[in-house]
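Dear Dr. H.,

I hope your travels went smoothly. While you were away I took the liberty of generating a structure for the chain from your last submission, since the lab meeting agenda had it listed for discussion. I wanted you to have the full record in hand beforehand rather than looking at slides cold. The sequence, exactly as received, is reproduced here:
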Amino acid sequence: GKRARCSCLVLHHRCSSAHFHHSHPHQSPHPLYSTMSLRAQNGHRPLTGGESSPESSGASEHAAKEYRSDLKTVTEAELINRHGVDPKKAEKKARDIQFVVSLMEQHEPFPGGTRPWRDAFCIAPFLIICGLVFGGALLFYGPASQELHKLIAEEQKAAKTTTLSPSSSTFDSSELVAPTFAALAVSLVASLVGALAFIWMSMVATACVVWTSLFLTPVILFCLGAACFVMGQALIGMVFMFLGSCFFFCTWCCWRRFIPFTIRVLETVSEVMTAHPALCLVSIGGRCMQVVWFVCTCVAVGGAYITTMGDSIKESHSGEEPEASGADYLWIFLFGFALYSGSSVLQFTCDVTYAGVFGRWYFQETDNSLMASMKVAWTTSFGSICFGSMALAFVRALDMVVTTARKAAQEEGNIVTCILLLVVECLIGCIGDLLEYVTEWAMVQVAIRGVGLLDAGRILGSLVLCSNSGLILADLLLGSVTSCGTLFCGFIGAIAGGLAGLAFGPSGAYLWAASGTIGFILGSIIGRAALDPIQTGTKTIISLWAEDPNPLMEFDHDMHNEFESKIQSKM
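The corresponding predicted structure, in token form, is as follows:
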């Protein structure tokens, strides 16, 4: 059987560590496995709602009871008094929790053997979308490229009427192709190295990274303000200085108390990422595939639109402003749905991989964790990923349609319609953000237990409710850390790209400026992608701690105490 990963609540006595090892000599002597679950006799991990460890002190057990309830034994009174549930909904909520308990008993974390396929009915529609996108890209590449050449020719004709500088005619534009690709390659490599260096610094100098991340924004604003004063733009400089002062005040007075907790969490997450550097490659590979998907979607939908809506395009080129028809909005919806479907599938696939690696670390199952997690993401849980992605894509596509209609009404001066569409746009945007946020958290349970997306959402809601773990998130400032890392990689890419453009580009081409700009954009994308596991890893640790804090209590007691103190201070 599998080793017991967690301790269980013992009714009236405790088993000593010596008795455990005597009774189970084949078990690991790691302190994580110091006590045994009654369910572990059958090779299962204990189902807990986060009950306290029997090895903890009486004071700790009493403190834990103040904010945490056992999923199996939670009562309506506990839901009302401890977790703030409406008394009218407490009975239904208790029944829902018992249903979740049965789900969790049926689906243990990281079950042995082959997982069943979940939400497989969503795989076929997504494969159809992939076929249409890639097939359309191949089919309509010709018309799309011809239209692009026409636009370029028109721009060149217009450019001939302007006066060209002598330096601009000393080289052929074809000479810029090879240097540009060389600059991009150098920027890509430099950005990747910068991302790995930032992750390493997050582990060895966590406090410095967090403090720098928080005060980076006001420092940049102060620098911009000083530059404006030097250039004689005193008013703009005062605006930048005022904004920088506001950010500095908020950071020092409002967010400073959250810094120690953020440092503690970032230390643990960075250690896991450093132990699995291939996570960065998975993330960057996912972003590169998103770029390919974006290009293919633009070519496929754009080529189909050019082919079927040629008259409307001719009218727009002739100077007339044709009104947007229902067909135009349909094309916008199709483009948005296809774009967000593929992009979200790639993003959630990476998230499930990250969650699997961090989950196996939490349960001390580190053997080939990356490949096992990727296998789950691309096979048995791929249907759940497609389900969540297409649901999110539908909402985002509607948002694109409403935004386009609102902009059209704004250009026409239709104030009433513009205001109504703006309200609808805000509502749809909020629904999309909420759906994306919940789906990201649900993917953790998809990776850990192999359940369907809807069941993962039910498990997530019950765990967060009975552990009050949602109170932890407000004190985390990891978003500032990832933003700082993104800018760091962006500047590294800009410097590398600018130097490469200066070295390889022909004189007078000013390739260094264009290469530096493109290098900054590319570096920011690479940096953001490489740091994505920080957010997902934090969500995974909090979700598993909400279910059972005992593993974290055993091998990282300080973080467990931090989680407890944050929740208790807000209740």
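Two observations you may find useful: The longest helix spans residues 326-362. The radius of gyration is 28 Å.

With kind regards,
E. W.
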